[in-house]
Design brief:
The complex is a heterodimer of chains A (213) and B (256).
Chain A: E1 2-6, H1 14-25, E2 32-36, H2 39-43, E3 47-50, H3 56-64, H4 69-79, E4 84-87, H5 89-92, E5 95-98, E6 104-105, E7 110-116, E8 128-133, E9 135-136, E10 151-156, E11 158-161, E12 168-173, E13 177-184, E14 187-190, H6 198-210
Parallel strand pairs in A: 1-2, 1-3, 3-4, 4-14, 5-7
Antiparallel strand pairs in A: 5-6, 7-11, 8-10, 9-12, 12-13, 13-14
Chain B: E1 5-13, E2 16-17, H1 32-42, E3 47-51, H2 59-72, E4 77-80, H3 86-95, E5 99-102, H4 104-108, H5 111-120, E6 125-135, E7 138-143, E8 148-153, H6 154-163, E9 168-173, H7 185-194, E10 199-202, H8 208-216, E11 222-225, H9 227-230, H10 236-245
Parallel strand pairs in B: 1-3, 1-11, 3-4, 4-5, 5-6, 6-9, 9-10, 10-11
Antiparallel strand pairs in B: 1-2, 6-7, 7-8
Helix pairs in contact in B: 1-2, 6-7
Classes of the chains: A alpha/beta (213), B alpha/beta (256).
Chain lengths: 213, 256
């Protein structure tokens, strides 16, 4: 099984790749995790992970700057249905648009938008940084075998707002509900960092590796 | 709900931990990677490495430590000490640090923080503030381990660093550091209430009560401690159990 972690210049991916590798090795013997910015790798991928750090616009620019990447992603993920996971800004990029430093189009795989966190309690700090617990709206294979309200590590100042409530798999509470995990068909997006969330984060990654949507 | 974080901090010099450690089951207690793994398994919420290597020739030893830690500890890692340039930050992030803490370089050039956060994002830029009390309700920024005054007001400084794009502030009281008499709560609270970004309280922890105080009275989002954990006085589990008993929202170790 070939798992591609897309590298589009948004920071260090080795540690994320290592987490995916560790998780994959716990559930399958023949996985191969590769950090890549090459379209050719994407064409052969069995699983695709899109991480992301920084602003929505910068990340979208970084992704678009890779020759043929946006088209290839569309083919692999939307047409061929390869299981896809977006992490943090990688999740946000799946939205129709981002509102960070002006409006930008995203990949458009989910109809909602990404805006700045506006907690109802103004003593709450931004970024939303640290461990928060998830509340599940429904069961999903990628979140199986976890505690009822697992804690995951978040670091973000912007978040995805869904138009369609059915997209939400889990939320976290931070002066209002934050979309912590969204999903549809072969698509999964997580606002938290499974690669930084110790055992329970690795469990999510392992589930993703064996997931058959 | 977001939980308060407990962050053990390891002082690293020439690739080895400086403070002794009492965990009998560690094969090499001087290896920061071994200690980091220990804290990872123990359920620490984050880890912090503070590099105190004097010679820049030996900086690579730190990178090796960060790389080896990031290979096996899947938890947030902050690295600080001797961070002076954008290149220093890039190198640490590429080695596997999630956040980089800037101290003296920010004092010399506050714009450096703006440059760093523009380049890498606020989420990975921590500004370390070393402050000393100069009169009641007034603290100043000190450099060189608390020896040199800068005349900069600590509360103003925290606010400026937020404006310049810091994602988090690590506030250490130079009066309290090493005393084991608890955080400077007025300092921590003063800065925390004056900014909209998270503050980590540091310097002076000698008991579990101090951790509670830092959060409750100091309004810190996270508490950093070194010796109470390294010397085996308290485990992370004991600290978490105590905080939970005191009504502080923490991430439980064994959720169901």
């Amino acid at each position: 099984m070939k798992i591609i972690v897309i590298d589009y210049g948004s920071g260090n991916l080795r540690s994320a790749a290592r987490a995916v590798e560790t998780a994959a090795n716990s559930v399958t013997r023949n996985s191969n995790v590769k950090v890549s910015s090459e379209v050719v790798d994407l064409k052969e991928a069995d699983r695709i992970i899109l991480p992301g750090q920084g602003s929505f616009g910068d990340c979208m620019n970084g992704l678009a700057a890779l020759e043929g990447m946006l088209e290839c992603l569309e083919v692999a993920v939307i047409q061929r249905g390869i299981p896809f996971m977006g992490i943090c800004v990688g999740m946000q990029l799946m939205a129709a648009k981002g509102l960070e430093h002006g409006e930008r189009s995203g990949l458009g795989w989910f109809p909602g938008s990404v805006g700045r966190l506006q907690p109802s309690d103004n003593t709450l700090k931004i970024p939303h940084m640290g461990w928060n617990d998830l509340t599940f709206h429904r069961t999903h294979p990628v979140f199986s075998g976890l505690p009822k309200s697992p804690h995951m590590y978040f670091v973000h100042s912007y978040a995805y707002t869904a138009n369609d409530h059915d997209e939400i798999i889990a939320h976290a509470d931070y002066g209002g509900l934050i979309s912590a995990a969204i999903g549809r068909d072969n698509l999964i997006g997580v606002q938290f960092h499974p690669d930084k969330s110790q055992e329970q984060g690795l469990k999510v990654l392992a589930n993703f590796v064996v997931w058959q949507p | 709900m977001l939980k308060k974080r407990i962050i053990p901090c390891l002082d690293v010099k020439d690739g080895r931990t400086v403070k002794g450690i009492n965990f009998i089951d560690l094969i090499d207690a001087g290896d920061p990677v071994v200690q980091a793994s220990f804290y990872d398994r123990a359920g620490a919420d984050e880890l912090c490495f503070l590099d105190i290597t004097a010679s820049s020739d030996n900086r690579d030893t730190l990178l090796d430590v960060v790389e080896r830690t990031a290979e096996k500890c899947f938890m947030p890692l902050t690295v600080g000490g001797g961070v002076r340039t954008v290149e220093d930050i890039r190198t640490l992030l590429l080695a596997g640090a999630d956040k980089v803490s800037i101290n003296t370089a920010a004092v010399y050039n506050p714009e450096f923080v703006a440059e760093a956060s523009n380049k890498f994002g606020s989420q990975c830029i921590v500004v370390a503030i070393d402050a000393k009390k100069v009169s009641t309700g007034k603290w100043e920024i000190f450099t060189h381990g608390g020896r040199e005054s800068t005349g900069i007001d600590a509360l103003d400084w925290g606010a400026l660093m937020e404006t310049n794009g810091a994602g988090e502030l690590l506030v250490t009281s130079m009066d309290k550091d090493g005393t084991r008499s608890g955080f400077d709560l007025a300092l921590t609270k003063g800065i925390a209430d004056n900014v909209g970004i998270p503050v980590i309280a540091s310097g002076g922890v000698g008991s579990l009560d101090h951790l509670v105080d830092g959060i409750r009275e100091g309004h810190a989002s996270a508490v950093l401690a070194a010796s109470i954990f390294h010397f085996g006085e308290f485990t992370i589990a004991e600290a978490k159990a105590f905080l939970a008993k005191e009504g502080v929202d923490i991430r439980p170790l064994n959720p169901t």
